[in-house]
Automatic annotation (TrEMBL):
Record InterPro entries: FAD-bind_Monooxygenase_sf, FAD/NAD-bd_sf
Naturally occurring in which organism (per UniProt): Nocardia acididurans
PANTHER family on file: FAD_NAD(P)-BINDING DOMAIN-CONTAINING PROTEIN-RELATED, L-ORNITHINE N(5)-MONOOXYGENASE-RELATED
Superkingdom classification of source: Bacteria
Stated name of the protein: NAD(P)/FAD-dependent oxidoreductase
Gene3D superfamilies assigned: FAD/NAD(P)-binding domain
Pfam families attached to this UniProt entry: Pyr_redox_3 (PF13738)
Length: 508
């Protein structure tokens, strides 16, 4: 069978993950690659999510690739469209546009052991071959509609935040929002400005802090583009987060005992902030701060104070009818528009990965993970799925920092492994079973008995914990991830050429 490939590397996804990987490959002198993107534009999550109020809750100076400053941002925490513009600038600066194939959905990938190639099937039935595949698929990728009976029967307008309809006129309508996560708390204040009446259905309240946001003037923007200033600020933020994380990690098993005090302190803060007993009772979580990704807003609480125009409903939703939302107290809340701010399928069976990936011996990765637990060596690779790297979307990869830190670390891992394979003349590299199992065990051991898996986080419905009851994130600092992804020992991979083992051809 032919050993000729369409591309040396196929990158699936042209969001931050795919773009960061492409830049790494370029820098390593690898130019035979393409990025496949299912949308008709680049940017991934920032291309898909364009609901009113969308912004990032990480400062631009840290929510940007380390190689390129985020200039022209209007605020400390830039709005979504400015992030999209930044992504477009990065792609042009690195000349990546000709490498991107838009409207190209990957349906599946199959490892061909006889040629040491991946065969990637596209939505139109075509097949591409590549020596290496990088899945930069995002984690907030597949919108989740609420699993509420009757959701299909609503006769008015239904919209999910990740597929916002900008042509629809929301003004003067009776709007309901289901969900009170990080997305909802950005959207709700904006909808309250235009709705005739806004009804928010909250199942689980969220911990949030005030957002120290401010307008950027050109001077601040110019200062941020001076490399030493930018690096110093990025370094300070990264170190600050990591120091906090070291504290949390060192006291992992003690946190469950401390958590109730944190919850009490948070509740006291909410009381002061809200100055409304009814609202603070409804809006205060019972789980501990930190169980879910914390959020920030200056407007969310204020919105609920407009009680004549905004209702906060905490009664359980029973079903959705043709006319609206019915709650357990028997009330049917009539509405014109149903907004589902109900999040995404994260690390769920059938959605991680989002297409079928048949590795060695034809085993499908999602099936394997379902049976054996969701793990990946350094959050990037899985034994039995050679020449495949996951960037920013693997199990045990997200560290509680900027996602771009994780993405750049994972992309550096893929680059290092591919470069080494080329150096050795290897056509196949597979993480060893021992290295894969050891990393999985390390993650499991470190999180056992932690706050996320014990009583303080009960009822938080956090996606930090997957449906199998294991922590889905990486229980280390970002610095540990940086080191692990850039300095993993080459003995953790088995390098093979089409004529046999080559792992001792060159010593790394
Ligand atoms: P999410 O955090 O998963 O929140 C979904 C919300 O919908 C929750 O309040 C959930 O309630 C509710 N919900 C889901 N199904 C429901 C049902 N059947 N009945 C009632 N309520 C239901 O999703 P998200 O708000 O879209 O945020 C996802 C992630 O996006 C965030 O964690 C964050 O990582 C990212 N994000 C980041 C930013 C940023 O500024 N960086 C902004 C927005 C989003 P339960 O909690 O009870 O499940």
């Amino acid at each position: 069978m032919s050993n000729k490939t369409d591309y040396e590397v196929l990158i699936v996804g042209a969001g931050f993950g795919g773009i960061a990987t492409a830049i790494e490959l370029r820098e390593a002198g690898i130019h035979d690659f393409a990025l496949l993107e299912k949308h008709d534009g680049i940017g991934g999550t920032w291309y898909a999510n364009r609901y009113p109020g969308i912004a990032v809750d990480i400062p631009a100076v840290f929510y940007s690739l380390s190689r390129m400053p985020f200039t022209n941002s209007s605020r400390f925490f830039p709005p979504g469209h400015e992030i999209q513009q930044y992504i477009e600038r990065v792609v042009d600066a690195y000349g990546l546009r000709p490498r991107i194939r838009l409207n190209t959905r990957v349906e599946g990938a199959r490892w061909d052991e006889s040629t040491h190639l991946w065969r990637v099937t596209l939505g139109d039935g075509a097949e591409l071959t590549a020596r290496f595949v990088v899945g930069a698929l995002g984690i907030l990728e597949v919108p989740k509609l609420p699993d509420i009976p009757g959701v299909e029967s609503f006769a008015g307008k239904t919209v999910h935040t990740a597929t916002w309809d900008h042509d629809f006129d929301y003004s003067g309508k009776r709007i309901a929002v289901i969900g009170t996560g990080a997305t909802a708390l950005q959207l709700i204040p904006e909808l309250a400005k235009v709705a005739r009446h806004l009804t928010v259905f909250q199942r689980t309240p969220i911990w949030l802090a005030p957002k120290p946001d401010f307008d950027f003037n050109p001077l601040v923007d110019a200062a941020m583009s001076i490399p030493p200033v930018r690096k110093a600020i990025r370094g300070a933020i990264a170190t600050g987060i990591d120091v906090g994380l070291i504290g949390a990690l060192l006291s992992m098993r003690r946190l469950p005992r401390v958590a109730p005090y944190l919850t009490k302190a948070g509740a006291a803060m909410y009381k002061l902030w809200l100055r409304d007993d009814e609202l603070s009772e409804k809006l205060t979580p019972t789980y501990a701060p930190g169980c879910k990704r914390p959020s920030m807003s200056n407007e969310y609480f204020w919105t609920f104070k407009q009680k004549d125009r905004v209702s906060l409903i905490t009664e359980k939703i029973v079903d959705i009818t043709e006319r609206g939302v019915r709650t357990a107290d028997g009330v049917e809340h009539e509405i014109d528009v149903l907004v589902c701010a109900t999040g995404f399928r994260v690390c769920e069976r059938g959605f991680a990965p989002v297409f079928t990936v048949h590795g060695e011996n034809g085993v499908e990765l999602g099936d394997y993970w379902h049976e054996h637990g969701y793990h990946a060596y350094q959050g990037v690779s899985a034994h039995g799925w050679p020449n495949l790297f996951l960037v920013g979307c693997g199990p045990n990869t997200i560290v509680p920092s900027s996602i771009l830190v994780t993405i750049e670390n994972n992309a550096a891992h893929a680059r290092r492994a591919i470069v080494e394979a080329r150096k050795r003349g290897a056509t196949k590299l597979d993480v060893t079973k021992r290295a894969y199992d050891d990393f999985a065990e390390f993650c499991l051991n470190r999180t056992e008995g932690s706050m996320w898996l014990t009583a303080p986080c009960a009822g938080s419905n956090t996606y930090y914990v997957n449906y199998q009851g294991e922590l889905a994130i990486r229980p280390t600092t970002a610095m540990n991830q940086w080191w692990g992804n850039r300095h993993f020992p080459f003995r953790d991979y088995e390098f093979t050429g089409r004529i046999g083992a080559v792992d001792r051809m060159t010593v790394g």
